[in-house]
Write a structure and sequence with these properties.
mainly beta, three-stranded antiparallel beta sheet, 4 helices
Length: 307
């Protein structure tokens, strides 16, 4: 299909704002915020001519590290995991709501596995390059101009076209008509220590929800059309419960005393004393001189040694 020719006359027909929609990503990580900003910048300034189909994946392109995209949370199956370009689904969802409020028709749109926090239930549009796209068609007879920007952790899309289209305005509403509670299954794990638990799969409540578009002409409700009927299936949780008994600590063997023993008495190095007693023997005659009137002196000394 040949691309519609853009002329100056056709561009002059774009002279009014038809719709705007914003979502917040204030709680997002730096990585996710970067991805939101990059993908929004890719879409900003896109011109869609009458009869032309806009493709999110074609306009934004593959989300690669070379383009500056970073790893952030993405929904894979029923779980939130880390993946390159996490956060771009908020951009496609914000654009989707702006398109609906402008009165345009989406030709390809899919919801997530479970509801997103940044838009009401049933108003999300997931994308995955090479697998899931978001597309809308310009069903007007005038060109439309898409402006996207971020600021203050808020992403906004404005849809511009001809002022003659302003006689109609649109509002969106959703109705959750069934809620399905999820269960949590506990599985014993012999490799996990007793008393500990580990969440394998978070539980997600299921919802059936319809989204309607109210159409007003000159302020009067003229039609209520069904846009989508989505089923977010319940996701049952799985928790592992540890059953592994703690290992018993081996009994400690008493350690030998480190106090020194009693040392044996050391032999004395002192020289034995020799007792000297005065002799009581009477000296034999002829061995000394006698003084008349006095007893003879007795001064004998024992000089025996101890062997």
């Amino acid at each position: 299909m040949a691309k519609p020719k853009v002329t100056k006359e056709k561009l002059k027909q774009i002279d009014t704002l038809l719709a705007t929609f914003s979502t917040s990503y204030r709680s997002s990580s730096y990585q996710r915020a970067t991805n939101v900003k990059l993908s929004t910048e890719s879409i900003n300034g896109t011109l869609v001519m009458p009869g032309e189909v806009f493709s999110f994946n074609n306009v934004v392109g593959r989300r690669t590290a070379e383009k500056g995209y970073m790893a952030a949370g993405v929904i894979v199956g029923n779980k939130l995991e880390s993946g390159l370009g996490g956060g771009v689904c908020q951009v496609s969802s914000t654009l989707y709501n702006a398109v609906l409020k402008a009165g345009l028709s989406s030709v390809e749109r899919a919801h997530h596995s479970f509801p997103s926090s940044y838009v009401p239930y049933g108003m999300d549009a997931t994308v995955d390059y090479g697998n899931i796209d978001y597309k809308f068609k310009n069903t007007f007879e005038y060109p439309i101009y898409v402006v996207g920007y971020t600021g203050g952790r808020v992403v906004t899309f404005n849809i511009y076209s001809n002022k003659s289209l302003k006689n109609r305005t649109y509002s969106l509403e959703n109705t959750v008509y069934q809620t399905l509670q999820a269960t949590v299954q506990t599985k014993d794990d012999p490799n996990l220590e007793e008393g500990k638990t580990e969440e394998i799969q978070p539980a997600h409540t299921g919802y059936k929800v319809k989204v309607y578009r109210n159409i007003y002409e000159n302020g009067n409700l003229v039609k209520k059309e069904l846009i989508s009927d989505d089923f977010y299936r319940p996701v049952n949780g799985i928790v592992k419960k540890g059953t592994k008994k703690p290992e018993k600590k081996p009994e400690e063997t008493p350690k030998p005393s480190t106090k020194p023993g009693v040392e044996p008495a050391k032999p004395s190095t002192e020289t034995p004393k020799t007792d000297t007693k005065p002799s009581t023997e009477t000296p034999k005659s002829g061995t000394g001189t006698s003084n008349p009137g006095k007893e003879p002196a007795t001064s004998s000394t024992d000089t025996s040694k101890t062997n």
